[in-house]
Amino acid sequence: MFAPPNADVALLLGDYLYAHGLVRVAAAGSVEAVAELAELISTCAALQADGGTGDGEAWVATACRLGGSPAVAEVEHALAAHAARVG
């Protein structure tokens, strides 16, 4: 399931996983979190469509708004892992 055969299937899988995640967050009763995540999805989609960068930083900012302030080393590690996977 997590090794899609082509880019089109990968896109559909990503959309499904985002939607599934939002449903689970909404079921937990956090409308604010759903709004934050929907904004994040929109921001990342726009960045990807424009060939821009900064989606990793957008994830960090959203995570901080939702869950507090991680240690600098944790942020650096997460951004490095993101860059390795996404580019």
Compose a concise summary of this entry.
It contains 4 helices and no strands. With 87 residues, the protein is mostly helical. The protein has one domain.
Keywords:
mainly alpha
Biggest beta sheet attributes:
none
The topology string of helices and strands comes to HHHH
Q: Helical percent range?
A: over 70%
Count of domain modules: 1
Describe what you observe in this structure.
The protein starts with 6 loop residues before the first helix and ends with a helix. Helix 1 (7-27) packs antiparallel against helix 2 (31-50) and helix 2 (31-50) runs antiparallel to helix 3. The model has no long low-confidence stretch (mean pLDDT 89). It has 87 residues and is mainly α. The protein has one domain (7-86). The chain has helices at residues 7-27, 31-50, 55-67, 72-86.
Could you outline the blueprint of secondary structure elements for this entry?
Elements: H1 7-27, H2 31-50, H3 55-67, H4 72-86
Helix pairs in contact: 1-2, 2-3
